[in-house]
Amino acid sequence: MQSTSLITRWLARSELIAAIGLVGLLALSVATIADVVMRTVFNSPIYGFSDLIEIVTPPIVASCLPVALAARQNITIRFLGRALPPRPGQAVELLGQVAVLLFILGVTWRVAVYSWEMFANQQVTWLLGIPTWPFWLLTSLLLVLCLPIQCLVTAETFANMRRGQPLEDEHPELEEGI
């Protein structure tokens, strides 16, 4: 099985996770507007809202990372790679993909350690006393999903470099409409 088909399968699965995260972000936005209205009109904020923001924001953000990596929507600077012949251009791209892999690995490691510390210390939110570790554990698991995806993307870039395949256009959807 080719790595592109594996990446496509991961992309399909991670889109559902991102959709759930975006629904959570929408709910958080509506709640923020409600909190602002409550503060402005009634001079009474939603009690404990800051606690909820503190615990739901990390998994919401992390839920969008797997789909971004699988769709290769992370920030890239390809002017150097495009100026070079195909193999050296792909080598520059590979360097960037390895850097992203190492970064995701480091972030995942640190968040997992932080999650464990939250659990070990039985940390709770300040006002509502909600345990924080389940939300950080979920964030850790979502970040762990990023690792095989980025490994596949990196392997595919390596294969493209070995074949001497030129870098793909950044916006192929624009050419289709022309």
From TrEMBL:
Pfam families: DctQ. GO terms for molecular function: transmembrane transporter activity. One of its GO terms (cellular component) is plasma membrane. InterPro entries: DctQ (IPR055348). Residues 29-147 form the Tripartite ATP-independent periplasmic transporters DctQ component domain. Keywords: Cell inner membrane, Cell membrane, Membrane, Plasmid, Transmembrane, Transmembrane helix, Transport. It is a multi-pass membrane protein. The chain crosses the membrane at residues 16-34, 46-71, 92-113, 133-153. It is found in: Cell inner membrane; Cell membrane. Its main location: membrane. Belongs to the TRAP transporter small permease family. The complex comprises the extracytoplasmic solute receptor protein and the two transmembrane proteins. Part of the tripartite ATP-independent periplasmic (TRAP) transport system. This is TRAP transporter small permease protein. It comes from Paracoccus saliphilus.
